Amino acid sequence: MDRDRVFRVALRSPAGWEATSQEVRLVAQPDLPPVITLLKPQRDAQAGEDETVPLLARAADDFGVRRIMLSYAVSGAARQSVILFEPGTERVLDQTAEYGFDLEALKARPGDVISYCVSAVDNREPEPQEARTEVCFIVVRPKLEAKDKEGNQGEQKKLDIGPLIAESKRLIRLTWDALGLPAGERAKPAEDLHRDLNVLRLEIRKVFTQVLQMSGGQVSGPIPELFGAAEREVAEAVRLVENRLLEESQSPQERALSALIRIENELLQNAASCQSKGDSSGSPPPKPPEASPEQSRSQQQALQAMRDAKRKVQELAERQSRLNQELQRASTLSPEAAKGLAQKQRGIEADTGAVAKDLAALEPARRAADTLTAAAGEMSQGAARLDQTDVTTAERHGRRAGGLLDAAVKDLDEALRKAAADRVRALAKAAEQLSDAQRAAADASRELAAQPQPPPEALGAAEQTQRQLNQSAAELRAAVDRTAGELDEPYPDVSQALGEALQTANRQGLERTMNRAANALLYRKPDKAVKPQTDAANQLLEFAQGLQAAAGKLPALSREELLEALQAMQQQARQTAQAMQQPGAEGQKQLESIREQASQALDPLAAALQDPSLREVADQMGSIGAGSSAETGEQMLRLFRAAIGILERHVTAAEVKRRLDLSRRTSVPPEKYRRQVEQYFRDLGREP
User: Fold this and answer.
1) Which residues contact 332 (CB under 8 A, 6 or more apart)?
2) What is the rounded distance in angstroms from the CA atom of residue 348 to the CA atom of residue 362?
3) How many CB atoms lie within 10 A of CB 660?
4) Is the pLDDT of residue 79 over 80?
5) Which residues contact 250 (CB under 8 A, 6 or more apart)?
6) Virtual CA dihedral for 268, 274, 276, 277, nearest 10 degrees?
7) Where exactly does CATH 1.20.120 map onto the chain?
């Protein structure tokens, strides 16, 4: 049924008697596609070859979930499908499904990469609707990798292939997106994919040339072979995409990604080897983003100042609106009346200027301060026009001032959201780094336990490292607790999620587990420290994921903000094309300026949207190296095209959501819910 229907039932007896029923209305409710969300992991993950990576997904549908399916492949091998949930005869509207990637059972080795996504199918007839998550990756790392994450000065620092890996992931995701389109709409994405794969192949060759130059042409080990394999696989993917065989191109793309991961692993091992030959004391454990009480108070005061300013600006906007209404009603004014209104306008102007001055001292609120300064300028001009009894022009300035005050409220909303998001994500990053450091400490204890007589100084250093980790974890928990309290008023959902993550860590006994590890090392028993250290690393990783989930509960960008961002990206892409036509150093200077602006704009966008593809684009935009204007410009245009495509999808999704929400608010509720509401009021009326 594609629209509402109205009908009656009419009966006629053999004797000619007739009867007609009351009018019956059938309301057609839209059957929306299912919604599928990855709860764990919420982004790309890394793990050792003997670990199990838990997966948790949630699917929901307005009329019923028919199936939840996991699809995965290991380094380009045959794709596997696993049914995570399939109900019987009952109708299920909301379902959570679990799975565990047992890397040992999958025979995954360091350098392997597992690409996966989860899809949900609803029970629409005759053609079910399907939705899937973003494609995510699990990278299998050697145990040595955890020791190097704090930043060693080995060969990895001389050569970073992270941008190649990020671009490879982006193109794999782009391939999946293209395959999700109708066959007739795949031509343009296929062209973009073909072009960008060619660029990736050339970049791989360029980086290998840099390796040869850095090593004087002497490169040992598997690195040359791996670079060659990556380039060959990308070339094969180019050939397949050129023939519009997008699905077939997935395997060589994933094999190329695996080769790049293996190169990175080799570089990590080289870096760790360099460190083990040099300073054996290790890096200090990471600190939470607000280790000092003074810094915590400063951040808290900044958030409170922006919240207070937002309330004041909202009040100013209401005052300006009332003044504008008075100006609209008065076509002409006596000099005395105009003087009174000018005095009101100057009062609002003074208060606006005071708020702008206070906000100018806060870096996150600079944009709001500038907007308020512009509003005060419009008010000053409006008051001057009222002094001349020019009501029409004064009203025009008043409307501009009102619009700028509304814009300042939005600026403050964005500043508050960004400050909160940066704070929570910094906490999540600190927890993740602590997990890595704790896992490295477990590896070190395992190595000590394997020695017949471990050196006493090595045992003492291991204990000291664990004590430092315990102190950092305690400071992190305290920082999370403070942040939850500070965000309780503006973002209660975020505050609650932070509290729940902290409660989970406490319930699991994180502090107790880390103390057991330290005590085992105190008594020089590294074999007894390995298990609590490993358990603590896993608990810290889960803590980090809980904190990241809390950041995801912050308000998303509005459709208007997305449109502004999209238009800015399009404008910068046009400016890039123009700068490429400029000769010599002038063109290079313009490109560098555009690149810096784009990088600064993309970072908060990717964070606010929680979009891994946009994050990869932002990282690549920030890491473009020196080159000719043509080379730099082509890289920037490719990244701008990717960012514009991602933002267009978010704008479309926001518009669809807006229309569906409007439809739900204005449509007749289903009969089931109408009966429930009627019954509720009947029961209410019977209460004494």
Assistant:
1) 389, 391
2) 22
3) 12
4) yes
5) 73, 76, 79, 172, 175, 176
6) 160
7) 296-416, 418-551
Contact (CB, 8 A) for 620 and 167: yes
Q: Give the dihedral sign, CA 289/295/301/302.
A: negative
Considering the domain delimited by 296-416, tell me its CATH architecture. Answer: Up-down Bundle (1.20)
Q: Yes or no: say if 285 and 434 are a contact pair by the CB < 8 Å rule.
A: yes
The torsion angles phi and psi of 285, rounded to 5 degrees, stand at: -65, 150
- SS3 of 571-607: HHHHHHHHHCCCCHHHHHHHHHHHHHHHHHHHHHHHH
Residue 511, amino acid = E
- Interval 330-386: pLDDT, tens: 767 788 888 999 999 999 999 999 999 999 888 788 888 988 998 999 999 999 999
Task: Please tell me the chain's helix, strand, coil percentages from 3-state DSSP, rounded to the nearest 5.
Answer: 65, 10, 25
| Torsions phi, psi for 311 (to 5 deg) | -65, -40
Mean pLDDT of 272-278: 48
Cβ neighbours around 35 below 10 Å, total = 15
Summarize pLDDT for 125-166 with one digit per residue, the tens.
888 999 898 899 999 988 654 333 333 333 443 466 878 898
CA distances from 409 to 31, 125, 306, 360, 548 (A): 37, 47, 10, 15, 27
Angle 286-293-610 (CA atoms, 0-180°, nearest 5)?
55
Residue 1 — pLDDT band, cuts 50, 70, 90?
low
587-614 residues labelled b (16+ CB within 10 A) or e (exposed): bbebbeebbeebbebbbbbbbbbbbbbb
**How far, rounded to the nearest angstrom, does the alpha carbon of residue 163 sit from its chain's CA centroid?**
18
Cα distances from 204 to residues 208, 218, 234, 263, 340, in angstroms, run 6, 18, 9, 11, 71
Residue in the structure block whose two tokens are 């040099």: 278
- Which CATH code fits 35-276? 2.60.40.10
Question: What is the distance of C-alpha 283 from the center of its chain?
Answer: 29
Contacts of 516 (CB under 8 A, 6+ apart): 529, 532
Burial class (CB in 10 A: 0-12, 13-18, 19+), 39: middle
Is the separation of the CB atoms in 40 and 545 below 8 Å?
yes
The span from the CA of 192 to the CA of 242, in Å, is 11
Half-sphere exposure of 351 (CA within 13 A, CB side): 18
Residue ranges, comma separated, of all CATH 2.60.40.10 domains in the chain are 35-276
Distance CA 685, CA 664 (A): 28
Q: Which CATH architecture has domain 418-551?
A: Up-down Bundle (1.20)
pLDDT at 679: 56
- Model pLDDT for residues 650-682, shown as the tens digit of each residue: 877 766 655 554 444 434 444 444 455 455 545
What tokens appear for 173 in the block?
A: 């995701």
Residue with tokens 């609106």: 321
Q: Per-residue DSSP letters for 176-202?
A: HHHHTS-GGG-HHHHHHHHHHHHHHHH
Terminal alpha carbon distance of the chain? 44
Dist CA 402 CA 406 (whole Å):
6
Q: What are the φ/ψ torsions at residue 409 (nearest 5 degrees)?
A: -60, -45
Residue corresponding to tokens 């790392």: 141
- Dig out the tokens for 608 from the structure: 């606010």
